[in-house]
Amino acid sequence: MVKKMFGRWNSVLVAASCLVDSGMAQEKPVETAALVESAWKLPEGVTYERSVRNEPRPLQIHSLVIDMQRAEVSFEVVPGEDPDGDGPAEVALARPEDLAKKAGAIAAINTAAWAMLVDPETGKPGKYKVGGAADISGWVSQGQRMISPPQGGYWSVWMDGSNRISMGTISSEKELRSKGIEAKWAVSGFRGILKDSKVLVDPQEVRHPRTAVGLSADGQKFVWLVVDGRQKGYSEGVSEEELARLLLESGCAHGINLDGGGSSSMWIRNERSEIALANRPSDPTGVRPVPVILGMVMKRSEDPGKE
Fold first, then answer.
1. What are the beta bridge partners of residue 215?
2. What angle (nearest 5°) sits at the alpha carbon of residue 63, between those of residues 61 and 67?
3. How far is Cα 114 from Cα 288, in angstroms, rounded to an integer?
4. DSSP reduced 3-state for 138
């Protein structure tokens, strides 16, 4: 089945019958309206789709759709280790697959924007390497642990005590307290790109790999989206406005652009119960280490209510 997007984008969903050693799925175009890749081992209520588009440019789009009513899953925010205690670094960069394994995740994506701290030996920002000291931008928390405090200008997504997911701006811990928000977890992105089904960003020519999260109007559909980019002829990336329209197409009314570029990665448990890459990150040196991931885990029996 060929789908129309924006009146000009065509897409074909593809399936996989097996995985290669790298965890990447083999492509096989099919003519179906909805397709779950058979190579991924996901619980009921969680659906992965891969869309290949040739217009207006080559694109590889990966979406994970979580039905919050049906899926017996919960979520965990997993940061790298704190390398200096009370020092300036909030986390040390880590391989995203290692963070996902630490949580026992069945799926994971990169999340918040971040910056390397200055290396005191060189006076320059450190390199993107495992163990590199980094500062996270915006609110990131897990349970009672505040990994990075809220920060003005960054949009956040969080789950409250009633297991409801929300998106919006939280500029300070004082605002958190004044609104009485007690989040089970929270992560942040650069900015909101979709609100009440209205696209918040203008069209532009700046295209990159992108990671986003979206939420349906009723809060029952939670969408993770990764678009590969910077790979000519394979997947050349999208603008923020195009990313917002992809979320709209997925049934979302609200959405946030998370960290992108070489950090964009989606990980899913495969048929061997191993966490493996679903997309193809853009860095030629391999998957970029990141400060924090959002992981999806199977709900534990002691978890009250649905997440």
1. 222, 254
2. 165
3. 13
4. coil
